[in-house]
Design a protein that fits this description.
about 30% strand, about 190 residues, Jelly Rolls, 4-stranded antiparallel sheet, about 20% helix, alpha+beta, globular
Length: about 190
């Protein structure tokens, strides 16, 4: 259940990243007469999109959870079909081999960077749809949205630990109810 929760959090982060990315793209496209050739930025502050997922549907109420994930070489983390958690996985280092028994999406770090550096009007497809049951390997900078209620696995076939940041989206109230002691009736 917790792994699914982690995956759900990943989905939320992808959606937040998509909103940030689409908002910044709209601002760039609408900024036809900038005061200077450079984008106006706050000194010392940099926003760098790392990945996104398009068209994600969220429940009306959701809990978000961010965490770091490390999978040792040869280890496997199973995704349970009965877990409603979806999530966005951002690979920090190493490689993850992922299989999901549903269609899912990936944005490759290099493609996202290329999209950010493209001239207005250039169309660059940074999203990759992975068919159900197909394995895909993700490396540092790659991002994957994994939907809830699907079976699958995250595997480290490499020689070094695979490390990721995961943003999970859980059904609302899941975090406050998980592991909470049962209430004792008043006398």
């Amino acid at each position: 259940m917790r792994r699914l929760s982690v995956l759900l959090s990943l989905v939320a982060i992808v959606m937040l990243g998509a909103l940030t990315l689409s908002t910044s793209s709209r601002v760039l496209a609408q900024d036809a007469t900038p005061a200077s050739d450079e984008m106006m930025e706050e000194e010392g502050v940099t926003f760098m999109p790392i990945g996104f997922a398009e068209g994600v549907t969220l429940p009306s109420a959701a809990d978000l959870l961010a965490l770091h994930l490390t999978i040792d070489p040869g280890a496997v983390s199973t995704i349970q079909e009965d877990d409603p958690t979806s999530g966005l996985l951002v690979v920090d280092s190493g490689t993850f081999t992922i299989r999901v028994d549903a269609e899912w999406s990936v944005s490759r770090g290099a493609a996202v960077q290329q999209m950010m550096e493209a001239a207005p009007g250039d169309e660059i497809d940074a999203m990759e749809t992975i068919p159900s049951g197909e394995e895909t390997t993700l490396a540092a900078g790659d991002t994957a949205y994994i939907p809830g209620n699907v079976a699958g696995e995250l595997r480290n076939d490499g020689q070094e630990p695979a490390i990721a940041t995961i943003f999970l989206v859980l059904p609302g109230g899941s975090l406050s109810n998980e592991g909470a002691p049962e209430a004792t009736p008043a006398a």
